[in-house]
Amino acid sequence: MVDSTLFSLATLNAHPAMNPDSVIQGDHWRIGLITDALVRFEWSDSGRFVDDATQMAMVRDFGEKPEFTVTERNGWLEIDTPSLHISYNQRKFSPEGLYATVKHVNAIENTWHYGDVQRRNLGGTYRTLDEANGRIPVDPGVNSTDGWAIIDDSKSNVIRETAEVNGNHNDFGTWVTPKEEPTTDLYLFGYGHRYREAVHALYRLTGPTPLLPRFVLGNWWSRYHRYTETEYRQLVERFEKEGIPFTTAVIDMDWHLVDDVDPKYGSGWTGYTWNKDFFPDPKRFLNWLHEHGMKATLNVHPRDGVRAFEELYPQVAKAMNIDPESGEAVQFDLTDPKFMEVYFDQLHHPMEEDGVDFWWIDWQQGGLTRQPGLDPLWGLNHLHYLDSARNDDSDYSERNPRPLTFSRYAGPGSHRYPIGFSGDTVVTWESLKFQPEFTACASNIGYGWWSHDIGGHMFGYRDEELEVRWYQLGAFSPINRLHSTDSPFNGKEPWNFHGDAERAMTSALRLRHAMIPYLYTMNRRAAFDNEPLVQPLYWDYPEIEAAYKLTDEFRFGTELLVAPIVDPAERSVQRAKADVWLPQGEWFDFFDGRHYTSRPAEGRRLEAWRDLDRMPVFAKPGAIVPLQMPAEGEALNSVANPRALQVVVFPGAANSFTLWEDDGAAQSKDRWASTEMALRFEGDSAQFSIAPAEGATDVIPASRDWTVTFRGIAPEAMHAVRATVDGSAAAPEVAYDAETLSLTVTLRDVPTSAAIAIDFADGLAVADDPVEADAFAVLKDAQMLYMTKEHAYHAIRELGKDALPALSTLEDLHGVGAQTKHQSHMPQPVIQALAEVLTRN
């Protein structure tokens, strides 16, 4: 039996009625001021309005009454708030009779009229990228350069507590039902350029993003391929042998009968019967995956219901009052609570008991059910997510205490049911180029946990460089799930690629797993502070035009800025570039510690050229990024709170970072351990400290090995480093790596209850920029005349480091080329790559 309490309005944290003190109402219209910038407009021909939760809206009373005044003049209402001025003629909504002007925004079209098209909306997201080969239009989000955005909730079904639906007893406690009659129901977000506030309001209205289980932040292996149990085991063992960590096994549709289905039943797209030729003992196979540190999800296409060839057909048919001897198919009917109870209890729960951890709901068949306005995709996401939260003392509940689904986007509010599957993209550079923008603008509709087909799914072409760049984007994506179609030429295993490509792909996968401590802290931030992991740059810099231009670039958590490479390399320089905008201030390359200065108030544009082994990722000054390291006795793909941590720290500013860890057992703020890390400066000295862990410290190891890597600093710092543990002098291991400008301080087996301090009496000076060495590296790889290389390098050395900052334009570099008398033989990409090196500061 389904647990009805899981589906109650209380479980959904629904408080759908508006504050009556913030409502202005007539016979057929109602205006609710939810905040001074979020306003609900309703029209009802009968005068009956919706106070129920809907598929989108859960909470319409935020607990405070916004400031506003209402004036009636010549039949018009004039409603004024600190953020908006609304004019309404108290008649049926029309463009002439209902409009609102957004205050404090420098935009020509900052007035919304009823029915206006959102021409300058900054975008939200879209249901699927199936077969997308590059940019596609997306649905609107709640942010616009005009300062206003509209969400139309008029066609939404309502969610009510009810004991009966369509004459059938309802064990779910609540059900999604149509409104008694059509009403207009609009939400105006008039936050101007306060984009972050608009998204926070959306989360308050629709419900927060839930906490994800820790394992989903590692690497996922997914492939549309007819694996056998033996083949899949060999694959996992090869990953282990190669030192490539995976935490999630995605088993595509061929786990069930497909080609073995008699054509009289239709296709084998839908199925619930394991193919025993491939998986003779499914429970054994799933348990084996668990023993190897992997969670398992199965693909399910539920459209065709349960047909007579299924092993479970007789009992399902009887439960639905169908004679099993008739062979009549049990129709998939999302609107029938009796069917959905059988769907969960008899089809899914037994397989979950056998070891399935969550479901990949792969609905691709349109948006119609027997109930008007109810999208089957939304219904499946809603019911599967809530059902996965059950706590029934089963093995499944013990293994998976935190609810989870994996499905497609089904409209505003879908962030309540993570994780998103974005669909089957085409393997091209155009597809890769669109994915960073698609991910970032999804945050404008609160959808933060997209899982893309990293590497691309189908069609397209083989390009090893393309695959590497996609893997690198995957490492800095919300979810990193490799995927490919069932082609013998399209396997995404790194060993299917050559030399440098294989090494770069493996490195990206290892880095992603190492980032789990950082990602899990951002997971908590997303759930409790309404801050998605990936954010567009204009959220922080709304009045700077450049922040809107480079749509590939995004914030990745609190510490990092990512500019993925989405174009192929230039042969002449053997590097690829990303166009980068750096906001005003100091920045550091996350990987090698090179220092960049962006002086203008409007920030700085540059080209960042990188070898195949990495892409441009920048850390803010003072950034603190915790990474996990392999520890003795821990599995390579462990997702336990780690015993060994590497903390990468950058100089330039004081900063603090709190590492959050829990036991994954509940969506609670109570059972967390926090470890605060801080970089402080006082006079000429600097200190990095790690405070004793606080809170539920039983969820973390009793002691840890700490490796603190200060990146981008001068080597002299290693001679004045001093470390203490609880005030007593310690003897750390200290080393310096000139290639990455990194000083490493290691303290082993330190109790997590102890305080660590690493002091630098002479401060943390930023390393001198290794201009000559980096320029030499560019010229060394450049495909050009040797004499031109030599003369160019000589000219750079002659200028000296003090003169190099004056080389701020490409014209200056052409001048360097001219000195060689071979200017025409210095390829433009080489000049551009040198420009980055010579003008970083």
Automatic annotation (TrEMBL):
It is an enzyme of class 3 (hydrolase). Residues 209-522 form the Glycoside hydrolase family 31 TIM barrel domain. Residues 645-712 form the DUF5110 domain. Keywords: Glycosidase, Hydrolase. InterPro entries: DUF5110, GH, Glyco_hydro_31_C, Glyco_hydro_31_TIM, Glyco_hydro_b, Glycosyl_Hydrolase_31. One of its GO terms (molecular function) is alpha-D-xyloside xylohydrolase. One of its GO terms (biological process) is carbohydrate metabolic process. Residues 531-625 form the Glycosyl hydrolase family 31 C-terminal domain. Its EC number is 3.2.1.177. The keyword Cytoplasm does not apply. Belongs to the glycosyl hydrolase 31 family. PANTHER family: HYDROLASE, PUTATIVE (AFU_ORTHOLOGUE AFUA_1G03140)-RELATED, MALTASE-GLUCOAMYLASE. This is Alpha-xylosidase. The gene is yicI.
